[in-house]
Amino acid sequence: MKILYFKIRAVLVTWLMRLLPRNPPIVFKGVNSALTLCEQVAVLGYTKVIIATDNFLGGSGILDGIKATLTKQGVEYVVFDGILPDPAFDQVQEGEAMIRTQRCQAVIAVGGGSVLDAAKMMAMLHTNPGSLESFDGIQKCKRPGLPLFAIPTTAGTGSEITLAAVITDPVSHRKIPIVDSKMIPGYIALDAEIMKGMPPGITAATGMDALTHAVESYLSKASTSATEEHATAAVRLIFKYQLRAFKEGGDMEARDGMALAAFYAGAAFTRTSVGYVHGIAHQLGRLCGTPHGNANAMVLPEVLAAYGECVHQRLAKLADVAGIGEPGEGQASKAGKFIQAIVDMRKDMDLPLQPKDLKASDIPGIVDEAIAEAGSLYPVPRYMSEAELTTIVNGLRAA
Ligand SMILES: [Fe+2]
To answer: 146 CA to middle of ligand 1, Å?
Structure first.
């Protein structure tokens, strides 16, 4: 009965996601495209903007070129660098207050997923005043937000192209997913120059997040030919460039490839949603503070293996895309090779296999929440039993 309810709900969510109106953003690509984006701000006639970022980036030299280009173009700016990881609504309110008092006309977001999510919400809150609860759900914003320009500094979350932001309630610490197609930034710069200073550990974790988006989207029952094109492009690029970007941060071709991969993976999963890997990873983040990309990497191959035969055909296709399938090889064998390649990639980048401080008593709660999250939001290829998910999560203590 519960499975039937999940299936009906997944169909409804899928159709709703497909029907949401979306304006495709304008994307600048390549080295120094962040500066081109800043020139575009001036071309559009904005004379005062807010740069939304975090404390680390605000104090680094990464903003220097952006600030210099804005000044050269006659655009005034203020910097709000109060965004923290897993941003809470009070940070969003603080940033919006700066928009109001400084009379900013547009938002330039420079950062990883947390910064982009908070900046999306700052832009929306400015034109749709309200409490965090009033945004909880799908398409709750009545008016378009302030114009938003996104410069991702990591290649992972794909938040620059997704229609969602996750904002934490500062009192209950509950993470609220806000889904509104008006949150998609109007302009995006995928600039490898901005990403070249990303440390190897962050490169590894964010790249695995992008890979998880691409794979879970490709396996989703809501996938379409358009999302499959994006997901397979992302997988191809990740298998070509992820290890290169990890080993040599200054490899600009690899950084370029990974920036594009994360963007394509984001374009795919923003229409199909994700799956059990994210369902478990969100709980590991909440309970153990495990960074999102690391948490995905801990369970991605294990979840794929547990799905079993129902995903062999699709994983075999991804093995071909990744260049690891042999002509004439059977689907099960290719699927196994693809899963093993992810295990190898995880090992090559020395990613942790266990969350810190995961207690045996946490496991039933993690499984329950993952079942509820996947059941209500994700059109997974097959609904897993409590026992199957318990085996996967138990493995995180024994790994
Ligand atoms: Fe993710």
So the answer is: 25
